[in-house]
Amino acid sequence: MRNLNQNEVGNAQLSTKGGKPNATVSESGLYKLIMRSDKPEAKAFQDWVTRDVLPAIRKDGGYVPIPPSPHFLQISARQAAPRHRARHVTVWAPNKTATEGH
């Protein structure tokens, strides 16, 4: 995270077993970290962004995803549930209050 801008990294006191401060990363910082990563999960995200999202924005001025089929959503939810329970990622959005939502 040392390569991120100062406004993209922060610390938050979250309730953890050790009680140590956790690093928080802004949304733009998270994208930077993912785009630099060599992990397979990050590479899949990088491919999607560079193959689908960015070309659509350039050509059409925006990206509108095609809704996935219900079968795909069921599979994705089953795969995501264990990962969600195992680890939490905190994304910090500057200039937003907790009541503003996402």
TrEMBL record:
<dbReference type="InterPro" id="IPR003497">
    <property type="entry name" value="BRO_N_domain"/>
</dbReference>
<feature type="region of interest" description="Disordered">
    <location>
        <begin position="1"/>
        <end position="25"/>
    </location>
</feature>
<dbReference type="Pfam" id="PF02498">
    <property type="entry name" value="Bro-N"/>
</dbReference>
<feature type="domain" description="Bro-N">
    <location>
        <begin position="1"/>
        <end position="61"/>
    </location>
</feature>
<protein>
    <submittedName>
        <fullName>Prophage antirepressor</fullName>
    </submittedName>
</protein>
<feature type="compositionally biased region" description="Polar residues">
    <location>
        <begin position="1"/>
        <end position="16"/>
    </location>
</feature>
